[in-house]
Amino acid sequence: MATAPNNASPFQRFRNVAAVSNSPVLFWLAENAKTCVESTETQNKLRQIIMDFEVFDDYNECVDYLTDFTEQKAILIVSEKYGRQIVSMIHDIHQLWVIFIYDLYEIASEGWFRSYRKVKGIFTQSKDLIAAVAREQRALERTGNSAFVMDMYNPQKNTSQSEEQDSKNVTFMYFQILVNVVQEMTSNDAISRQDLIVAWKEIYAGNKVQEGNSEI
């Protein structure tokens, strides 16, 4: 695993360490993904569940991005129109975890997707889509972090122990890392403070409440 250079700021070192987490990246592809008010409202709610979020209205750009994507697992939300065009091309990409078809209007036909195992749902209601994304996000983090936590805390850990405990261990681990980073900062450590503010704004872009907290 790559390490940060010695002259990296404390918060930058935290970001590098935290990058090993198994949090997924969420992709949203639709013709009006960046202009439709209803879509942007749903996107803002989803950003509170998954911090890494990419929005596309050009399916060629989205396909290019996905085919070059080699880091975290990806969850794709795609309109029915674009889904029909790209699902067959991208379905077997290793990093692509699950696909959701989402349209604000009635889906014309649901039969076309049944041969694609990664297509886990078709939605016309944002609340149902958000609930499905939240479930997959929790499943992904449990799957990846369980093994990671066992390695760091107890190599002999019984795999039958509860997923809830694994999740608590992960949360505690990252909290401790952040505490250590903050303790390294001095009152005049302007670079680290600015790193923290910039990262916070990137992570919570679109979340007005959390964006405001970065100015406190």
Primary descriptors:
216 residues, alpha/beta, five-stranded parallel β-sheet, elongated, disordered N terminus
Overview of this protein structure:
With 216 residues, the chain is an alpha/beta fold. It is 51% helix and 12% strand. The protein is built from eight helices and five strands; from the N terminus they run αβαβαβαββαααα. The chain has helices at residues 10-18, 37-47, 59-67, 80-90, 126-153, 163-184, 190-203, 208-213, and strands at 25-29, 53-56, 74-78, 96-102, 119-123. Strands 2-1-3-4-5 form a five-stranded parallel β-sheet, with helices on both faces. The two termini are 34 Å apart. 25% of the residues are buried. Mean pLDDT is 74; it is low at 1-6 and 146-157.
